[in-house]
Amino acid sequence: MSDGAAIETAGLWKRYDEVDALRGLDLKVPTGSIFGFLGRNGAGKTTTIKILLGMARPDKGEARVFGISSSDSAAGPEIRRRTAFVSDEKDLYDYMTVGEIVAFTRSFYPKWRGDLEQQFLRKFDLAPGRAIKGLSRGMRTKLAMLLALCRGAGLLLLDEPTSGLDPAMAEEVLQSLVGHVATEGATMFFSSHQLAEVEQIADHVAIIDRGQTVVSGALDDLRSQYQRIQLVFDADAPEIRVHAPGTHRVQRKGRVVTILSSSGGAAVLDELRGYRPSSFDVSPVTLKDIFLESVRTED
Question: pTM here?
Fold first, then answer.
């Protein structure tokens, strides 16, 4: 495995009973990146996170966090010391107050950042005397983020960080996370179904499907690689068959044919111009377009 990666997996397999949760997953998360980890439900995202944290062992392959094998039981505490994980459930102790759980968590982390603790208590409007059981879901999320961000961890592992939040609160949490990564030099690896949010803050993404990586790379590179091509004809559009590589979805409706291409080359465009459309347009695509194409169910 190579240097410069906060997380790296190679040929990762994990089977539960008769189901292969991971089927040779390859992943590389650059240090200092904000990395969106995408996939449908059941694609293998949660299993991957469990393996990275040493909570599950792969059947084959290897996973490393900061160059440390997550399968090495002796190294597990070192990985967890340098990593802050926030689950989708935002697990907290309901019998405590905000101040009590902050003090309790602080006692486990020698690198705890008191300055960040005070900053986020104010920013998130978390009064130390408030009972956790009385917090709304949004406030529970903010408290879970505070506990993660103050640990002095170099890697944030976040599972659906804005799940259930209203747009204003989600934006506040996202901007806090982005600011933390920028000022502290941390790496953020987060799974999410909110594609617009991923596109807003991530600089790298990986899309997994059926336990395998199907798309991975810098988000700007992926967006420049993919393109939507639209052809308009004077009469009903002919049936289009493109032989150049990198051609994905071809949709024909009346006089219009729309094509999603990932080749980024001139071969596809030259071939399509041969159909002599009355107009020809090439436009960029969104992360949602790339995601939906990558995880299409094939019959």
Answer: 0.87
